[in-house]
Design brief:
globular; 30% helix; alpha/beta; 152 residues; 3-stranded mixed beta sheet; 4-stranded parallel beta sheet; 23% strand; 6 helices
């Protein structure tokens, strides 16, 4: 069977080489973004895998809900605490961020940056609620500079 890569840098191909013998695998995608374009998990979903997609942008979250009905889709950000945070959304890109400095750089470059308040959840609380006793075959975190915060 031909493997079609959807990921920006072929990360899905690298993961598939290591995990192709896993049936009904499970992933967690923090900063999932679009369900197809630049998606590390799309090819796995198409092969019967399921997972958790964490995505705060309403348009991407809605698309995930429509195109990934077998996944658990959460409209929030992952972080080190459960708070309401200011999120700087940049529609149609993967550049949205929690970092005000990065948001300002995008504004200075002429991008339309919109502030919104989003809920934050810890990765631990997400796993406690949704993973249960199944193995996590891979975890992808792409949150524009806040990866360490997610892991903490």
């Amino acid at each position: 069977m031909t493997f079609i890569s959807y990921a920006q840098n072929f990360e899905d191909i690298r993961l598939w080489r290591a995990l192709k013998y896993v049936e009904n695998g499970f992933y967690i995608d923090i900063g999932a973004n679009d369900p197809t374009q630049d998606s590390v998990t799309k090819a796995f979903y198409d092969r019967g895998w399921t997972g958790i997609n964490v995505e705060p942008m309403p348009n991407y979250y809605d698309a995930l809900c429509q195109q990934r009905p077998n996944d658990i889709n959460l409209q929030c950000v992952a972080g080190e605490s459960a708070d309401n945070l200011t999120f700087y959304g940049i529609a149609g890109t993967g550049l949205s961020t929690l970092d005000p400095t990065i948001a300002q750089q995008h504004k200075d470059a002429g991008l339309d940056v919109r502030n919104q308040t989003v809920k934050s959840r810890t990765l631990a609380s997400i796993c406690e609620q949704h993973v249960r006793n199944r193995p996590i075959h891979f975890l992808k975190i792409d949150v524009e500079g806040h990866e360490e915060t997610v892991l903490r």
